[in-house]
């Protein structure tokens, strides 16, 4: 084996077979690429005419600018230079509202893509089969990055076309808008390629990539709020600092993105030559010789395996809740500078601005908490396909013990992270107001039945249609779309009603419906039962 590898290295070169690998990887990921690119570009295409119709005049855009000028709002959107250009440019308003979110989704796409084509293939031994052929050592990494580069260019081009109908810029503005997203994709593809060399499993590699994304959003938000240098520590911040569709529009911040992406790619290629195949640069921590008494059941083992994900969720949602709490704490001061018409923009059910803000933040916290539950169910499918679950299933374990144990683990993770986020929001935003603290806490609890429905649906899809992993992402993405962008996009009522969160009401801005909560809880229970039935009826897919 070593002799064959040496012959390939010396005779064919470490990039031998890259072209064939590229065609193979494009074929494997064609549906992944299609749905992600279509989703991000299609969503952007939908928002462009909506924002243009909602704020058609300079006066309306200037009024809306007053609601977006506070540090709290800038931290969740972008630099204040965009706000200054609202009146003269619909494109500036659009870019300010969208770049943070579309760049974040772009980053998630490229983290998942590069991990799938590098570390995940090694973990499942697919790369081992491929490397038995005359393929160079760096060919699979090179092909993965070429796929990522092509996808980034295509995505940027489609986003440029989507933004081409906006007023307020010149012919280069939509191109810059698309290039800003291409740059984010290239940076996170490179960073994830490095992460794939450092870790020895796909989940850790993905975790590193998403941690880089979280830090990027945090630094961008902190820098935008106060106009400080912290924005320059964020790949998303570099794209925001292009000031696209404003009079201060500039291209050169993307040079920073290009330099970081190139440096990350160089480092990834350097690291792949200094590690053993199937291993990471960071050695795995040695486990105990004998398991603890509490790990003698499949359910206990499952909770142990997802412990890292649980802690990640707790820390992430706590920070998110505290960050939103700081915004909520300044809501009254923010409202004092608004006219009645401007306050109406942010109104939820006629409640005061603090309750309206609290309602929005509680919903976003719930969506993020549901995401961690979805990730836990996804871990069940990974354990099944890589063969580790086969070792557990070979013992005297019922289907409800494994892989059915991932449902209670997912429900626990989503519930805990939602509660932590709610407590962080209440602690940071109530300002000693016991009544508001209690309302935020109750509002957080009200979200739980909808979260359970999402998790139970994802589990049922895993049980009955395990190969259609995109269903769990479709379910979660739709809930995010309804909660955060439903009103903006004027979605029809039947489309909104598909999301369980649409049935909760807007507590604490409005009253919640107790019968609706009971029905959602019952639906979650039925979906969970359907999932367990599916597990008993299908064969486990070990490959």
UniProtKB/TrEMBL annotation:
The chain crosses the membrane at residues 31-52, 98-118, 139-163, 175-196, 208-231, 251-272, 305-324, 355-378, 406-426, 446-466, 473-492, 512-535. Keywords: Membrane, Transmembrane, Transmembrane helix. The keyword Transmembrane applies. Coiled coil: none annotated. The keyword Transmembrane helix applies. This is Exporter of polyketide antibiotics. It comes from Glycomyces endophyticus.
